[in-house]
Write a structure and sequence with these properties.
single chain, mainly beta, Porin, 14-stranded antiparallel barrel, 5 helices, 14 strands, 13% helix, globular
């Protein structure tokens, strides 16, 4: 119990310290919210409560990391929009019985751009964001695990650059007898160290809460994830993008704070998942002909030492994104 109290106290102190550096309403490095797991992407874009031997889920909740992921590695590739590419890689190692650590990297490559002056092309440049992650987790009780991720983030656009330090703090609860799990994550607390100009801003920080429950007599697991808990009304954000949200009532606004997911798990070696993200759906439904925004799906299979995953989603009216992952249990070689 003392460990749990210490963990909660650390979370409160961390929020107070690192959010004090950020200016209200301004955020940088939004790529940190892009999918880094095919499983979570298939479940609606993010999931912090599912308990699986899938180390890519550690990007979403550091408390998902456990000894069962010892010597596991995972790489992800997401074909985003146009020639924008998103990727990640992570490797985990257990330390004694109750401790684990992992190192990972996630990035976005915005592609090449033409550099022009007065309409004359004089060259080209590229833009990239990269985050290097160090993760540590510890078993607090038989059912409760805590974890923390430290991130060093760098961004380069032509001659402009920025660096930042960020942290995720998470808890994961799992009752194996009831096949019920829950997660709580404080994501992307921190601020820029160096900025593109003279004003430093914070990271896209969020508080997320999720639950997952497997049905008693069917290979089906349902998940509900609450997101964007650091704000209620989306009107201020959306008005900046020219979107009218004047008709949003209480229920619609609350619905936009949820993500719904369902897993079909006929065996430990195969899964099919689908998810629905209401905020993405409503935001993108403003575009004519775009009726499938917010609906995600995917599947995965494990063959001996290897696991392969695939998911697809529509994050932009102009394109469907395809997400691939490959995982390997190095300890089995």
């Amino acid at each position: 119990m003392n460990r749990i109290k210490a963990c909660i106290a650390s979370i409160i102190c961390t929020i107070a310290i690192f959010q004090s550096f950020a200016q209200e309403g301004e955020r940088a490095f939004s790529f940190l919210g892009l999918p880094t797991s095919t499983r979570a992407n298939a479940l609606g874009g993010t999931n912090i409560s599912v308990i699986e031997n899938d180390i890519s889920l550690v990007f979403l909740n550091p408390a998902a990391l456990g000894p069962e992921m010892n010597m596991n590695a995972n790489v992800n590739f997401l074909s985003y929009i146009s020639d924008i590419k998103v990727g990640s890689a992570i490797f985990g190692k257990s330390i004694r019985e109750n401790n684990s650590f992992a190192v990972g990297v996630n990035y976005i490559d915005y592609g090449d751009f033409k550099e022009a002056i007065n309409g004359e092309v004089i060259g080209s440049f590229s833009g990239k964001d990269i985050a290097v992650n160090g993760v540590y987790s510890h078993m607090l009780t038989n059912r409760l695990r805590g974890g923390v991720t430290a991130k060093f983030i760098t961004s380069n656009y032509e001659d402009y650059s920025s660096t930042a330090i960020g942290f995720d703090v998470g808890l994961s609860y799992y009752n194996e007898d009831r096949e019920f799990s829950a997660g709580l994550v404080l994501k992307n607390m921190g601020s820029q160290i160096s900025s593109y100009d003279d004003k430093r801003v914070g990271l896209p920080w969020d508080v997320q809460l999720g639950i997952s429950k497997k049905l008693n007599n069917a290979p089906i697991r349902l998940s509900l994830t609450a997101v964007y808990l650091t704000q209620w009304d989306f009107a201020r954000v959306n008005e900046a993008n020219g979107i009218d949200t004047s008709d949003d009532g209480f229920l619609k606004t609350a619905f936009k704070h949820t993500i719904l997911g369902v897993d079909i798990i006929p065996s430990e070696n195969f899964w099919i998942s689908a998810g629905f993200n209401p905020k993405v759906h409503y935001d993108m439904a403003l575009e004519d002909g775009n009726k499938f925004g917010g609906f995600n799906g995917g599947a995965g299979i494990r063959i001996q030492k290897f696991s392969i995953g695939f998911s697809l989603a529509k994050f932009h009216p102009a394109a469907t994104t395809y997400h691939f992952s490959l995982a390997v249990d190095i300890s089995k070689f």
